[in-house]
Amino acid sequence: MKTGFFFRQEDGSLSSPSSGLLAIIDSWQSLEQWWLLIRSRLTLPAPTQCPVCGMAQRLGEEEVTLSNGKQEHVFDISFIGHAHEITLPQTGDMLLVHEVTDERSRFKKLSAEVLQYESLCKAIEDVYFRIDLNGLIQFISPSSYKLMRYRPEELRGCSLKDLCATLDNWLELLEIFEKTDIVEDFDVVLKCQKGHQIPVSMNARLVFDARGNRVGIEGILRDITEREQMDTLLAERTRKMQESLVKLENLKRALDQHALVSITDSEGRITYVNEWMVKVSQYSWEELIGQGHRKLNSDYHPKSFFKEMWRIILSGGVWRGEICNRRKDGGEFWVDCTIFPIMTPSGKPFQFIAISTEISNRIQIEQRLQGNRDFLLGVTDAMGEGVYVLDLHGRFCWGGVRMNCWAAIYMN
Fold first, then answer.
1. How far apart are CA 295 and CA 285, in angstroms?
2. Helix 401-411 and helix 360-383: axis angle, to 10°?
3. CA gap 248, 243 in Å, rounded
């Protein structure tokens, strides 16, 4: 299920669409155009007072179907009010958008199958029964064979209590009839031939004689096996959804443990850092918030390096590269960094999110390898001999400067 969010002010203006939302509405030209179509099909929730700031906010959820000209898309729109816990430059309502097209398609298909089954059930006679006050079966319709594999003559004179899978079902039924004359949609499990059991729904009523005395109970039994299976299926889907949510939470925790995450505003001031960023940089959260990334500048890169980076992200592009930063104690640490901008509806970046992985160990190894290689080249060049390396198959892999000269002469 695809998910995204944006903010809506009470004057109707929109802001801060997430990258997930922009991916969802990619078929439409802009957030405004998409929302204009959604709004025409949506009833805004009534405003309520925010318990934090006291201003008006909207809470509610609605499902909207929208076509992009090629296919219909189903969106679940949730108004969750003011998101005060998120550091973003707006105070309007936060709206969560879930595209549930695939889920609704599967549900529609499943619903069609259920309707087909219900139509089939209507063509099959339910089981009519009548028992006396002792629970003995006086009459039962021939459809009992289709339901329980018992013929009517096999069941007449038998106790309905003995057909119940558990005594609790029978006692509960009697308790209900002590309080009312009619029982509707009473679920009970019945015993069938060869030890099988079947869930049924019972609709029954008390039978009275001419004097108003209770003389028995009559009712209808309907097979609800399919309904039980649907309940099981829905329970399984709910369980899997809950497991997915747990996995997402674990992924977030894993990201916080592995990656350095920081958020800056359009001026380059840091507005958020995660715990791993604090640990690696050795600066406290208070020391970083409100500061620019210049605080971490190691002077390793030329100004043109950062100029090009800012050119890319200010134009709405994603920048990727390796940066050498400086810790609070003066030591350096390298990160493999990805920076992507969060755009306003007008197409201007107002926030930048940087996700980095520390690669200091790899850089140190590469630098040592390069140093060893330069040393080896210097030694072989000083020898004045042609030095070369072959692989196990006799293929040329590497040669010193003099060897390369000989090879050039030979090839010419």
1. 13
2. 70
3. 9
pLDDT of res. 88:
58
Rg (CA), the chain: 37
Q: In the predicted model, what is the mean pLDDT of residues 273-291? A: 91
Q: Which amino acid is at 235?
A: A
Residue 382 has pLDDT above 80, yes or no: no
Q: Could you tell me which residues are beta bridge partners of residue 306?
A: none
Residue 354's CB is within 10 A of a number of other CB atoms, namely: 22
Q: Is the pLDDT of residue 50 over 90?
A: no
pTM above 0.70, yes or no: no
If you search the block for the tokens 């289709």, which residue do you land on?
146
Assign 330 to helix, strand or coil: coil
Distance CA 182, CA 173 (A): 11
Closest alpha carbon to 219 in 125, 123, 131 = 131
- One-letter amino acid for residue 393 of the chain: H
388 DSSP assignment: E
> Comparing C-alpha atoms, which of 201, 235, 232, 205 is closest to residue 121?
201
CA distance 327 to 257: 18
* Closest alpha carbon to 282 in 296, 270, 261, 272: 296
Evaluate whether 387 touches 399 at the Cβ level (below 8 Å): yes
Give how far Cα 143 sits from Cα of 52, 115, 203, 221, 310, Å: 63, 22, 16, 10, 78
